[in-house]
DNA sequence: GATGAATGAGGCTTCATTCAT
DNA sequence: TATGAATGAAGCCTCATTCAT
């Protein structure tokens, strides 16, 4: 088995484990079991330490997430449309890759990698672009980025806890909210 | 030293420790050291187990938080005002009791006590009241409650990570956002 | 409260505790609770150490046991009769003072006091007396003493485990057995 | 070193330790020291918990015991002969495997495995068979089984305490006693 | 004498990591 | 590479005992 394949397999098992048991209960033994490995030693062999594995898990989930979201963004030509697409994509990702999403939320606080702020920077840039284009009203883009991501995170966290949450409803309400929050003038429906 | 005082001291040390090192790195030994205790046995003597201490930490922070927020809510007579006061109070609490807030966010996922959803229920009720009174537009109150609390949590989380965050700016922007999100008709400024 | 009364109270609580929870689960805290004491310190104050308490428990149960058995022995004028009375007394003691008996069996292995062999010596002496008087056949009295006490202990142990054991049946069968084991010639019934 | 070998080694060390120090003083540290292990963690590595080790110790001793006793039972064709063989085997086992016997008596009260009563059931069955075959007199077989096993246990316990006990003498006397206790009619010697 | 908090040793267990094979 | 036993640190918890009040 190739090095890369092994790492991927281990990372995959780690994601499953974290999603299922939560970060605290995720030990090398659990991961090894789920990966069908006969020894935790193999994990240490392929990863310098637990931290590297955790970071890799985070990166892998983020990669999948980015791929998924990307597919939604391409189709819109306005900034507001892109923002809507981003939000929709996030909620759809939750449905399509529940365990990845759950793992993401569990693992995030334990990630060492700097670059967690990249999300924020990109969002702030997008918002600024919308302001330049005249679609968005005046607001502090960095602050609004915090808000938008907070909404995303909060909904995902809630969905992670409550499997019965109506994500369609959430999506509609969220789009309405964000539009009201950002639009230059409020558009009365119809 | 009286039992109650000791418990309070230990809870205090635990809060400090969690705020400083994060939940994962918070061991009885760390807490004992910070509290000036001679052994971890003393913690077990005063608390039935780690879970009881964790729950107590959560309860204590929540108590302080509730007291603090209460002081802000009394003065408003409209529901919208109460909602604003709630948000303001939360951000001010972060400033006044930073370590408590950080500890709260760290500890929340590990609390056993049921009643974590109470926050959500109360917020949803408040929002419904605003709808009945005509102050708020039509929206799904439960979903909007998720949004409002997500915003609150997201801002606090951000503030916990980034000590330099401008909370005044956040406050202003947040109030604006929430008003736009909930108001029956958008009020153009001025 | 007088010193002696306190000690007696603690010993009594210890007996209850051991009978109820078994030796391994008997801690000072359990004993203190059962005695209505508010501190385990009081136990350490009245007893030099756990060993002294254990020994005292053993001695106390033995004292009661001896008193009880004594009442049965007086009435017989033959050695065989005394032996029978001893056995009957033991089984009756089990019924009358179940928890004391159970405590006795639990505590015996942990007693430091030498004098556990006294039982054996007395039994051997009794048996020798029966041999001298011509009631008993020839056998090694020390070995037979082991047997008789083993039978006694085994029945008590069984009764301790199985509350439904028919002690009347046991008594009849035991007397028959011991008579056959010791009698000079087997007496056909009737 | 193979898993099975390590487990066997640990069980062996545990048997030694229990035989030497008694159950109460048998800690993982003691066992590890005696087994030449570098840490108690290794014991937990090979056994799920203390209970599993205790049960394994019990099972191992019982296995050896059963093997040993088996060799004695085959040769007899009468039930009385089988009963005698059983008793002889038990006493010989004590001599041949002293520490195992002592460990057995120490560990028995702490074993979780159900099947401790199997001994009793088998003995009662054997006795009933002897009654059906006409070798044994009328008695309650369950009660007599208690007696026979009590005698066995009592002698072993005594032998465990007193290394100087004359087991040959015990054997002869025990056989005589049991024969008198069970035989249809007392056979006068010679 | 009595209280109850404090002590500190010791117990079992989990875990990431190392290492010989 | 892979295995899986071994390591050793660290964690939580229990307990008898001590001590100031």
From TrEMBL, chains A, B, C, D:
InterPro entries: Homeodomain-like_sf, HTH-type_TetR-like_transc_reg, HTH_TetR, Tet_transcr_reg_TetR-rel_C_sf. Gene3D superfamilies: Tetracycline Repressor, domain 2 (1.10.357.10). The keyword Transcription regulation applies. Signal peptide: none annotated. Residues 4-65 form the HTH tetR-type domain. Keywords: DNA-binding, Transcription, Transcription regulation. PROSITE patterns: HTH_TETR_2 (PS50977). This is TetR family transcriptional regulator.
């Amino acid at each position: 088995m190739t090095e890369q394949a092994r790492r991927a397999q281990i990372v995959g098992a780690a994601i499953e484990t974290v999603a299922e048991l939560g970060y605290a209960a995720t030990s090398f033994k659990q991961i090894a079991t789920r990966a069908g490995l006969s020894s935790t030693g193999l994990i240490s062999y392929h990863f310098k330490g637990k931290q590297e594995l955790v970071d890799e898990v985070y990166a892998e989930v983020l990669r999948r997430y980015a791929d998924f979201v990307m597919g939604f963004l391409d189709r819109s030509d306005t900034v507001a449309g892109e923002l809507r697409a981003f939000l929709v994509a996030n909620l759809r990702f939750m449905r399509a890759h529940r365990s990845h999403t759950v793992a993401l939320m569990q693992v995030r606080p334990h990630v060492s990698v700097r670059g967690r702020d990249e999300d924020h920077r990109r969002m702030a840039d997008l918002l600024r672009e919308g302001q330049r284009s005249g679609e968005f009203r005046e607001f502090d883009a960095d602050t609004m980025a915090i808000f938008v991501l907070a909404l995303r995170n909060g909904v995902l966290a809630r969905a992670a806890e409550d499997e019965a949450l109506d994500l369609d409803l959430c999506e509609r309400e969220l789009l309405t909210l964000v539009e009201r929050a950002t639009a230059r003038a409020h558009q009365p429906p119809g």
